[in-house]
Amino acid sequence: MAYETLIVEIEDHVATIKLNRPDALNALNTQLLGELADALADADGNDKVRCIILTGSAKAFAAGADIKEMSEKTFVEMFLSDFFGSETAAICRTRKPIIAAVAGYALGGGCELAMMCDFIIAADNAKFGQPEINLGVLAGIGGTQRLTRFVGKSKSMDMHLTGRFMEAEEAERAGLVSRVVPAKQLMEEAQAAAQKIAEKSQLAAMMVKEAVNRAYEVPLNEGLLFERRLFHSLFNTEDQAEGMAAFMEKRTAQFRDR
Ligand code: CAA
Q1: Atom of ligand 1 nearest to the CA of 66
Q2: Ligand 1: which atom is nearest the Cα of residue 112?
Q3: Which of 72, 140, 173, 218 is the most buried (most CB within 10 A)?
Q4: How do residues 178-224 score in pLDDT, each as one tens digit?
Q5: Which residue has the CA at smallest separation from atom 11 of ligand 1?
C-alpha cells in the first residue's frame, strides 16, 4: 500500500516503517497516525514479516503531536473524536515485535509513540521529553502512564512538570531505552536486533510480547500464572521440540512457527 506520510520497506522478514513528514519533524497528525495504524496492521498480517522497526529521520523520530492541527480544536471536538484514541489503540494491537529506532527528537507524542513499541534503541543524539506543559496541556497518548512505568515517579514528574529533555545516556540509565549506539550505526543495530528476533520461533516471540506486556496490566500472581500457562502451551509445538533437540545436537534450530 502507498502512504503519504510513511516509507515502508520489507527486507529479510523485517518491515521498516519510517515516519516521513520531514518539514514538520515528523509531527504526528491524524493522517500519519492513521497510516501508521494501517501499515502496522499490514505488517502484522504479512507472513513475510517477522519483526518491525519504527523509525524517523536523523533529526527527529517525531517532535510530538502536530500542534498546528490541534491548536484550533475545542474540547467538544477533541472529546467527540476521542482524539488519537482509536489510532493509538490500533497501533498497540500489533502482535509482532516492534523496535523503535530513535534518533534526534522524540518529544511529546513522539516519546509516547516510541514507548508504545516493544523496546527502544536510541542513537547517541536522541532527546526524549514530554514538553506538553509548555503548551498549556499535558501528554495525551500515554506519557504520564507509560513514562512513569519506565522511569519511576520522580523522573517522570520531573520530565512532565519541567518539560526538560532527557539525553540518550540518561534515558538508558533510567530504563527508558534498552541500548544507545552511535547515531551512524542506529539502523544497522536495529536491523541486527530485528534479524535476531526474526530467526526465533514466531510463536515464542509473540508470546514473550504478550507476557511482558501483561506485567503492566495485572498483579504479580496473575502475571506469573499467565506466563506459566504460555510456557506450558509451547510444549505442544514443533518449535519447542526443534529448539530443544537443536540444543542437544549442538546445531542451530530451524523454527517453522508450528
Ligand atoms: N507540531 C507541528 N509542527 C512542528 C512540531 C509539532 N509538534 N514540531 C516541529 N514542528 C515544525 C515547526 O513548526 C517547523 O515548521 P516551519 O518551518 O513550518 O515553522 C519545523 O517543524 C521545524 O521545527 P523548528 O524550526 O522548531 O526546529 P528546531 O530545530 O528549531 O526545534 C524542536 C526543534 C525543539 C523539536 C521544536 O520544533 C519544538 O519544540 N517542537 C515542538 C515540541 C513539542 O512541544 N512537542 C509536544 C507536542 S504536543 C503533544 O505531543 C501532545 C500529546 O502528547 C499527544
Answers
A1: 1
A2: 53
A3: 140
A4: 999 999 999 999 999 999 999 999 999 999 999 999 999 999 999 99
A5: 24
Q: Please give the positions annotated as active site.
A: 65, 109, 112, 132
Instruction: Kindly state the average pLDDT of the residues 88-102.
Output: 97
**Mean per-residue pLDDT for 12-41?**
98
219 Cα–ligand 1 center, Å: 39
Give mean pLDDT, residues 98-117: 98
Distance CA(256)–CA(83), nearest Å, equals 40
**For residues 210 and 207, what is the distance between their CA atoms, to the nearest angstrom?**
5
- At 48-67, the pLDDT tens digits run 999 999 999 999 999 999 99
The DSSP secondary structure of 116-162, one letter per residue, reads HSSEEEEETT-EEE-GGGGGTS---SSHHHHHHHHH-HHHHHHHHHH
Of 19, 25, 116, 159, which is best to mutate to test ligand 1, by the most ligand atoms within 8 angstroms of its C-beta?
25
> Mean pLDDT of all residues in the chain?
97
Q: How far is the CA of 190 from the centre of ligand 1 (A)?
A: 26
What count of residues does the chain have? 258
Q: How many CB atoms lie within 10 A of CB 75?
A: 7
Cα angle 220, 221, 223 (rounded to 5 degrees) comes to 65
- At 1, is the secondary structure helix, strand, or coil? coil
Question: Is the CB of residue 91 less than 8 Å from the CB of residue 42?
Answer: no
